[in-house]
Amino acid sequence: MNYGPKDARELIAFYLEAGADAVIGEEPVDRMADDAKPSPARLGPDGKPLRAGAFAKAARTDPASDRGRQSASPLSRPGESATALISPDTAIMAAREAAKNATSLDELRVLLERFEGCTLRGTATQLVFADGNPEARIMFVGEAPGYEEDITGRPFVGRSGKLLDRMMEAIGLDRTRAYIANVVPWRPPGNRTPTPQEAAICLPFIRRQIELADPDILVCLGQPATQTLLTTKEGITRTRGRWFKYDTGTRQIRALPTFHPAFLLRSPLQKRFAWRDFLAIKKALVS
Ligand code: URA
Predict the structure, then answer these.
(1) Cβ pair 182, 141 in contact under 8 A
(2) d(CA 212, CA 206)
(3) Where are the domains of the chain?
(4) How far is the CA of 156 from the centre of ligand 1 (A)?
């Protein structure tokens, strides 16, 4: 049977729909086979397997550069790639240390760009740090970037971002009067929810980002952002619309969980609750 460009397009469309939207290897691996071994393409020069993120990074770099180099540090220098098998605990500790050292948002962005402790960095196109005005009194924090955000490097620019813009506009806000970021600043493949481990590794960075931006009001968009930042296991239908206290590290501010715009796009009937939350935000901003 002959396959043509149309078949290739259909196959790619099928992969995309199934959420497989990132290339992580040159050769397919049959993981169902009894004797499945890591493909040679996934091994470092010392014969040890590379992690997914390290592999993707290595695959993107010039073979003559630092492909496969083992490093104990999750922070790389410009032009370097750390490909160590870093344990999650080590990555969390390194994230805490790096975040603590940032004295400005610009420094934090640079540190995050160099941080290799989160494997999502290897499959994402780029870091999605923030958008809007860091001087604003209000900060919105979502879960993680999606496809459009990954391409543009700006949070909330896709369909849910457009809805967020309209919700902000309804209470007299726009991106010059709000600061916007995500708990996880790299897009998870296929837009899946970040794992608790990925969120834990990124948490010191978003906490420091909030501390440095120092807003008066923090809005947690959706359940993952709410549970991660407000350390609660309660679901978003119970937490939304309830004011929480959030300790930035230097002071206590008010935090409000609300539904994520992506959820509102799927469940438009819930918009009336989000509207109540936004009216509460508007009121809080004048006090
Ligand atoms: N969803 C999020 O949580 N964040 C974005 O930046 C985009 C979509």
Answers:
(1) yes
(2) 10
(3) 86-286
(4) 5
What ligand 1 atom has the least distance to the C-alpha of 155? 6
Q: Taking phi first (over 0 means left), then psi (-120 to 50 degrees means alpha), and beta for anything else, what does residue 209 get?
A: alpha
Contact (Cβ atoms closer than 8 angstroms) between residue 197 and residue 88: yes
Query: Which residue is it, tokens 């939350």?
Result: 277
Per-residue confidence (pLDDT) for residue 72, from 0 to 100: 45
* Residues paired with 244 in a beta bridge: 255
How far does the centroid of ligand 1 lie from the alpha carbon of residue 155, in Å? 6
Q: Which residues line ligand 1 (CB under 6 A)?
A: 142-146, 149, 155-156, 158, 160-161, 182, 262
Tell me the backbone φ, ψ of residue 68, rounded to 5 degrees.
80, 5
pLDDT for the residue 10: 81
At residue 46, the pLDDT reads: 47
* Class of the CATH-defined domain 86-286: alpha beta
Residue segments in the chain with a per-residue pLDDT below the cut of 50:
36-72, 82-84
* 77 Cα: distance to centroid of ligand 1 (angstroms): 28
Supply φ then ψ for residue 217, to 5 degrees: -130, 135
Query: Distance, CA 159 to ligand 1 centroid (Å)?
Result: 9
Q: What is the pTM of this model?
A: 0.77
